[in-house]
Structures are given as C-alpha cells and as structure tokens.
Design brief:
Length: 162
C-alpha cells in the first residue's frame, strides 16, 4: 500500500565543512610551541634538580616536538572550524563567536557585516543570542560561505529553491 504524499519534499543539502585559514592555523601552532617551551623548561629544571639522566630531557623534547607537530596538523587540517549540517551548525576553534551551535529552526536572521573593517557572518538566534564568525579565519570564499549558509538555512526552515 502506498503512503500518502505529504506535499513537495525539501531537497537535502549536503553537509559542509570549513577549516581554519592557514595563517590562523599557524597561530594555533605557535601557541603549541609556547606550551612546548614551558614544558621543556620544567623538564630541564626537574632533570637538573633530581639528577636524572639527560636522556630523559631528550625524550621529553622529542615527544613534545612530535605532539606539537601532530596537534598543529590536526588543528589546521583535520578539525573543522565550522560545520553546516542538515539540522544546524557548529563553530569550533574560533574565539569570541558567541553561540557556538544552534539548529536552523532557532535562526531568525543571517547576514554579513564589517564592524571595524573586518568582514563577519552574523547568525541571529530566536533567544537573542548570536554567532559572529570572522570570515578571514576560514579557508573559504566569503561569497560561497554565504550561499552555502543560505542553502542550509532555507532547507532547515523547509523552504525550497524556486
């Protein structure tokens, strides 16, 4: 027996993933290098005070370098900064964005602005919160990001393209 049709179906929009721009990924790696330097200073003091062999310090140094390189690679190439999916969006690795995730049905308005000359994407939510994403931090074309966000938002609200 056939199921009755509930009307025209809204086409699904493929999930989208945006990563950090290389310059911002390098900033995060710089932070990891500072952390490595602090760990190495502490390890040096511990080795000097306790009389441990210097091989311990060499081991800590090599392990720290490997962890820093792996962490930098993961942050800049594998961990998405912005994900747009069928039910909503999620922002990670970007400080000061406001609301880091929401469903599309909670979004009341989305648009662009340039406060202080920095182009941002602003997503306003029903409860008064907002997400502000500086477009420069993403390795993406600004116009493509806006079109992609609009397609997800339309699909999330059940709208079909004309």
């Amino acid at each position: 027996m056939e199921q009755p049709s509930t009307g025209p179906q809204v086409p699904a929009v493929a999930d989208s993933t945006y990563y950090l721009a290389p310059a911002f990924g390098i900033r995060l790696v710089g932070g990891l290098l500072v952390l490595l330097a602090v760990v190495l200073v502490i390890a040096t003091v511990v080795v000097a005070v306790t009389g441990l062999p210097t091989a311990v310090l060499v081991g800590v140094t090599l392990a720290g370098i490997l962890v820093t390189l792996a962490g930098g690679w993961l942050v800049s190439r594998r961990v998405p900064a912005v994900r747009l999916h069928a039910s909503g969006y999620r922002v990670r690795l970007v400080r000061g964005v406001g609301a880091t995730s929401a469903s599309w049905t909670d979004v009341t308005r989305a648009g662009t602005a340039s406060p202080g000359g920095t182009p941002v994407l602003i997503i306003s939510l029903r409860d008064g919160r907002a997400t502000t994403i500086p477009v420069q931090v993403l390795a993406a074309d600004r116009e493509q990001l806006v079109r992609d966000l609009q397609a997800h938002l339309d699909a999330g609200h059940g709208l079909r393209p004309l």
